[in-house]
Amino acid sequence: MLVENQIIHCQIFIFILAYPQSIQTAVGDIGGSIEIKCSVFNANSFPIAWLKFEKEDSTKTTVLSIGKELIVGNSRFSLEVFIENGTISHILKIKNIRNTDIALYRCVVMCDDVDGDANTSADIELEVNRPPLILSSSSPTVVIAREGQSSRLECYADGFPKPRVSWTRQYNGILITGGNYYRGNVLRFFNVTKDDRGTYYCDAVNSVGSHVQHIVDFRVNFAPVLTVSKIMYTHIEPSKQKVDVQCLVEAYPAPKIEWLYNGVVLHNDNYNRIVETATEYQFTYSTLNFLKIDNDRYGNYTCKARNMIGTAEVTNIGKYSFH
């Protein structure tokens, strides 16, 4: 592959005329080869050099060649120089291309004079076709936000061509943007609710290789919500009847749940047994089993749940006679 850069005119008596042009891009494949050509008209005796500037840190510069001499000690690099019709061409050749070759390459005509630096140059960016790679600047795999506050999920990917980044939600759920698909790097939550919690998928794809996915578990801290409380009679025969009072608590972090009878905290004993079962998505069932049924148990029963965010309770859910 041959990429020819802009022609730089450097006339005698150090008069320099460079035709402005946007930076060109040369694209190669991993393991492939590429040639970058710089042609200079009327360069006379002025030396021409190839420089390499690291893409991530342009202060890191490597001199690859000066004049006809290849400076860099890397067998993958070679230099060809020829003159034709008053134009001198310096062709920088790179074989067995690697990701480390991604950089800005500068062809410099070193036309110094007594008044200072009068160099002129032209640049070519070398890119390498590569599949998407999720960058460490993306959100971590677990993000925790508090209900009512703002938050964001971020996903960034490297690769060439530039990957397309999109977000979806588990079970094809609705995103904060209003649909079930969003193209962009950042999902913004301006007023987080508990319904925003769940698993989010960031997909990055380009025309090279397969797509990559970044999974984020978005957790929301919120105070307990008692969504269900009921009495269940588990046997039709009165002599065998068993009564369970059940309380469904939704909260994150996981709450501490207590049962109270007329304001007194209940514990497992000969009369009661308390069983808790945690389910997916921060739901906890707390069941109060009555082991003995008689009118002595008549009164106010309270299901109370609390975590670091807040407290909630439901009272009188068991105010009844056991006849």
Automatic annotation (TrEMBL):
This is Lachesin-like isoform X2. CDD domains: Ig. It comes from Aphis craccivora (Cowpea aphid). Keywords: Disulfide bond, Immunoglobulin domain, Repeat, Signal. Residues 20-125, 131-213, 224-315 form the Ig-like domain. GO terms for cellular component: neuron projection. The keyword Thylakoid does not apply. InterPro entries: Ig-like_dom, Ig-like_dom_sf, Ig-like_fold, Ig_sub, Ig_sub2, Neural/epithelial_adhesion. Pfam families: Ig_3.
